[in-house]
Amino acid sequence: YSTSKHRPRPDRLHLIGCGSSYYAAMWAKVWFETIAKIPTKVTYGSEAINITLKDPKETRIYITQSGETKDIIRASHNEKSDSIFIVTNQPFSHLGSSFFNTIDIGANIERGVAATKTFTLTCYALWELAWHWSSESKENELKVLDYQDALAEGIKHVLDREQTVATIAKMIARYDNALFLGRHWDYPIALEGALKLKEVSYIHAEGMPAAEMKHGPIALVDEKTPSIFTVTGSFDIDTIISNMREVKSRNGKVFAVVSPVNYDRVKEVADWTFRTCDIHGVAMEPLAANVVLQLLAYHVAVEKGLNPDRPRNLAKSVTV
Ligand code: G6P
User: What are the backbone dihedrals phi and psi of residue 15, each rounded to the nearest 5 degrees, phi first?
Assistant: First the structure.
């Protein structure tokens, strides 16, 4: 994908995906709206078949790392416009090789069934597109390269500390339920973290916006249900801290993946923390934090004697 390629700026965007690709779409919506200022909606592929009226003013982006997911093929079935995008890791797949604009995320082969590096690079490709459509990109095209380096550095920092995640995983493996919480750009990361834990470790997990917990799910919090927070960026830290206190006051354990700017505040409340490194560019922080949650799911599965590469009941691309 090259930012120099001519891609006219759409008036409105509609992102469509399934599973992890849907969460990548939710994450990207934040950036399409904040940096590119393009109103964006997100729909599940399986629900998009109900869209009979396709808005001619919106540009639709179908997101599917395999390029073969039946729900996405069905949803894009009647598309005629050449302004449609496919974001995929398989440019020669059914959808990747269609006449639509294909953006290859270039993640190379992902052997495990659960999306990991393809999730990260789908998010990154969509962020790049948001950047391309932002006014800032005209002023500073090279900045994209800074973000790439920052993301690579952030992920390396996490991988170098895998042992810390493995230690936390030993604790999480003892539970039957977990809540994943985050705000704003960390909210889709919480959803993806919960999905990953369910997929590979069979622990029931729910992701939600941190402050929504008090509107119902808080009834689930007790000593048997830990809450795993993702806290990057520097907005609204007081509300997050108060959400953590709500969990603690109901005997729930608090685990937090936290960026340096929030570390001191969060450490005072959380039972366990994983500190990510200082990353240039706030958009890359949640993607590095997400790798902590991916490793967590992996180590919980291993701890429980399960094969994280071959989760039960799941296939790489859902073709039925
Ligand atoms: C399956 C997998 C998920 C994946 C989803 C979408 O259900 O289990 O991990 O996120 O399909 O796959 P796609 O290839 O369309 O991104």
Answer: -105, 135
Among 158, 98, 133, 106, CA closest to 28? 133
Four-residue CA torsion sign, 197, 164, 110, 228: positive
Q: With bands split at pLDDT 50, 70 and 90, how would you rate the model's confidence at 133?
A: very high
Report residue 123: phi and psi, to 5°.
-60, -45
Q: How far is the CA of 115 from the centre of ligand 1 (A)?
A: 7
Any ligand 1 atom below 6 A from CB of 65:
yes
The 58-63 sheet, strands edge to edge: 40-44, 12-17, 58-63, 85-88, 101-104
pLDDT in tens, 222-259: 999 999 999 998 778 999 999 999 999 999 999 999 99
Predicted TM-score of the model (pTM): 0.94
Beta-bridged to residue 102, according to DSSP, are: 86
**200 alpha carbon, distance to own chain's centre:** 16
For atom 3 of ligand 1, which residue has the closest CA? 19
Question: How far is ligand 1, taken at its centre, from the CA of residue 19, in Å?
Answer: 5
